[in-house]
Amino acid sequence: MNALERMQEVLKLELRAAAVRAGLAAEEEIPSVHLEVPREKTHGDLATNLAMQLTRIARQNPRQIATAIVDNLDRKKAFIKEVQVAGPGFINFFIDRSFLTAVLTEMAALGERYGTSDAGAGEKVLVEFVSANPTGSLHLGHARGAAIGDVLCNVLNAAGYDVTREYYINDAGNQMNLMALSLEARYREALGLDAAFPEDGYRGQDIADLGRKLADDEGDRLVHLSDDERLTTIREYGLKHLLEKIKQDLEDYRVRFDSWFSETSLHQSGAVKEAVETLTRLGHTYEKEGAVWLKASAFGDDKDRVLVKQDGSFTYITPDIAYHRDKYNRGFDRIVNIFGADHHGYVPRMKAAMAALGFDPEKMTFLITQMVKLYQGGELVKMSKRTGKAITLVDLMEEVGVDATRYIFAMRSPDSHLDFDMDLAVSHSNDNPVFYVQYAHARINSVFQQAGDQGIPVALDPESLSALTEEQEHDLLQKLAEFPGEVAVAAEQMAPHRVVRYLHELATQLHSYYNAHRVIQEDETLTRARLSLLIGVAQALKNGLSLIGVHAPEKM
């Protein structure tokens, strides 16, 4: 519990004590006290509706109750500078924020761990994200999902959750057969042989390059194999190399996974067949026109779903049901799926399937990432200038860098559409959101450099902190104190963009403070105090940027 949280707890206790002293209610009758931050700063730093909660017990109108509470409140003990009764009975508090200097001491003790908490209490969370078919390069949608998923996992870890990051490898089914047929065609082309390219095949540069590599590695050996043996060999070769490239691209993007779960393993273990048999045994399937159907509409879906087709093969949803059944059976408290914009219809059918299997569907959270539009020179970009093909994650990392790409993809709620301006992302201007925050950190370090050049030690000086009396200084201290709570809320709400928003607000306050106040000056005590404050701001910026997977540069 940091200084801000301790102050709020003391205020809550004092409000309860004031209600008792005023004879409004016995201690055990008083409901839980809620504090909130008013929208308008003129209404104070905190407010409570306790008086309205006590009307039934005290049998008085709320304003009378609020006045009685205020009259019996120990203001000094509760850090209150001013208190007002407003509206129908709200109590607004203007806090003496000098106590907030204690947050700098706490930050110095915690260092890189500042912002972490045990809010998640070790709850086990599985986060599945990216899970792109290994049939080519990762595109913009995957890039956004990867950034959001990775930042969410970082935030959950910081808030005390036990997180597992998982990539589901779609290495079974028709898409992999199409990849193998496409690769076979490119392999034959590389050998100078006639090649029939599949109508719905993969025409990306990755498959063409891999076809030439396969020809270099194997020569014409595969041509002389049987059709089945040749296609199996090519399929395994393609899967291995394409998956390796995906892993490397994600590594370059600073995204790592704890688990790579193979769809093929579900078929080999019999888990897919077992899932259908379990649903049938529970009475949740029926046969119609030679197919096996799930009674999904009985569990909230808009219609029933085919599990097994007339020819005995599984539909695409069936292995997904087996996969999610496996997730539940692994004992996770919460299951998070981060999917692309084309997966909206997936949510009700998967929740229906899990409910039919006897699992709690509310344990599953689906974050659907919306579409990304890329702009350069004011025009919509669909093709890479380098390759003439669709823009990939690699293209974006090369064009604008990993920091800017991750930051911009993480800064918006997943369910909002995103316009990505490539020119803005590389500009050194305050309009560039990642530059704006990184520059705040670099700006602080330039002050530290100046102090060092003048022989002034850059270190926390607890004895000087009472010199921080400016309103902007208290605003910065309060913002620093809010950081752990902001991370905890971002984790609880599965809203990693809240951390990005926090960093932008902190950077805004820092830039404003820097422009209004000299840090290094003749007053040595004030200089040490302001350097101490900047040490705290720099630490919060660095810790927050670390959660987003972005560097905190010392120079720009």
Summarize the structure.
With 556 residues, the chain is of the alpha/beta class. 49% of the residues lie in helices and 13% in strands.
Structural features, described:
The longest helix is centred in the middle third of the chain and has 26 residues, at 227-252. It contains 20 helices and 15 strands. With 556 residues, the chain is of the alpha/beta class. The chain has helices spanning 3-21, 50-53, 55-58, 62-71, 102-110, 140-158, 174-190, 205-218, 227-252, 263-269, 271-281, 317-329, 346-356, 393-400, 402-410, 422-425, 433-453, 471-492, 497-516, 524-548, and strands at residues 35-36, 46-48, 80-86, 90-95, 124-128, 162-169, 259-262, 285-288, 291-294, 305-308, 334-339, 364-368, 372-376, 379-381, 418-421. The strands form four sheets. A five-stranded parallel beta sheet has the order 7-6-5-11-12. Among the domains are: 3-95, 2-Layer Sandwich (Gyrase A, domain 2), CATH 3.30.1360; 430-548, Isoleucyl-tRNA Synthetase, Domain 1.
Helices and strands, with pairings:
Layout: H1 3-21, E1 35-36, E2 46-48, H2 50-53, H3 55-58, H4 62-71, E3 80-86, E4 90-95, H5 102-110, E5 124-128, H6 140-158, E6 162-169, H7 174-190, H8 205-218, H9 227-252, E7 259-262, H10 263-269, H11 271-281, E8 285-288, E9 291-294, E10 305-308, H12 317-329, E11 334-339, H13 346-356, E12 364-368, E13 372-376, E14 379-381, H14 393-400, H15 402-410, E15 418-421, H16 422-425, H17 433-453, H18 471-492, H19 497-516, H20 524-548
Parallel strand pairs: 5-6, 5-11, 6-7, 11-12, 13-15
Antiparallel strand pairs: 1-2, 2-4, 3-4, 8-9, 9-10, 13-14
Helix pairs in contact: 1-4, 5-20, 6-15, 6-18, 7-8, 7-9, 8-9, 11-12, 14-15, 17-19, 17-20, 18-19, 18-20, 19-20
Pfam families: Arg_tRNA_synt_N, DALR_1, tRNA-synt_1d
EC number: 6.1.1.19
Domain DALR anticodon binding: 437-556
